[in-house]
């Protein structure tokens, strides 16, 4: 089952960067989700898509995937864009 390795993005709900230095290994879904006819919840029989492993750097994640024979692709981290703005710019 293929997996992807990526760096955890910053949460949109907070301005902090907690846990953004972690790398995640997530398995991709092997079967499509379907709606339950009774409740309407979406579900799948794929339990591997619920697994999320954390590593301190990309090399550890790659080594784990290679050791266990998991075909993994590394998703590069997009560059951070800083928007420098002064408080006085709100009144111009």
Number of helices: 1
What proportion of the residues form beta strands (DSSP E)?
Answer: 15-25%
Radius of gyration, in angstroms, nearest whole number: 19 Å
Global morphology = flat
Estimate the helix proportion, in percent. 10-25%
Distance between the termini: 55 Å
Structural class of the helices, strands and pairings? Answer: alpha+beta
Please, what is the average pLDDT? 89
Per-chain topology:
Blueprint (H helix, E strand, L loop, with lengths): L2 E5 L15 E5 L6 E2 L6 E2 L8 E4 L2 H10 L4 E3 L18
Parallel strand pairs: 1-6
Antiparallel strand pairs: 1-2, 2-5, 3-4
Description:
This protein is α+β, with helices and mostly antiparallel strands and 92 residues long. The protein has one domain (3-35, 43-91): Double Stranded RNA Binding Domain (2-Layer Sandwich). The protein is 11% helix and 23% strand. It has one helix at residues 58-67; strands spanning 3-7, 23-27, 34-35, 42-43, 52-55, 72-74. Strands 5-2-1-6 form a 4-stranded mixed β-sheet, with helices on one face. Strands 3-4 form a two-stranded antiparallel sheet.
């Amino acid at each position: 089952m293929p997996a992807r390795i990526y760096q955890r993005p910053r949460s949109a709900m907070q301005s902090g960067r907690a846990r953004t230095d972690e790398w995640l290994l997530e398995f991709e879904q092997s079967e499509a989700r379907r709606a339950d006819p009774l409740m309407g919840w979406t579900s799948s029989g794929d339990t591997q898509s619920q697994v999320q492993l954390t590593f301190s750097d990309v090399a550890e994640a790659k080594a784990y995937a290679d050791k266990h024979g998991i075909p993994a692709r590394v998703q590069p981290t997009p560059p951070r864009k800083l928007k420098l703005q002064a408080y006085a710019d709100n009144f111009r």
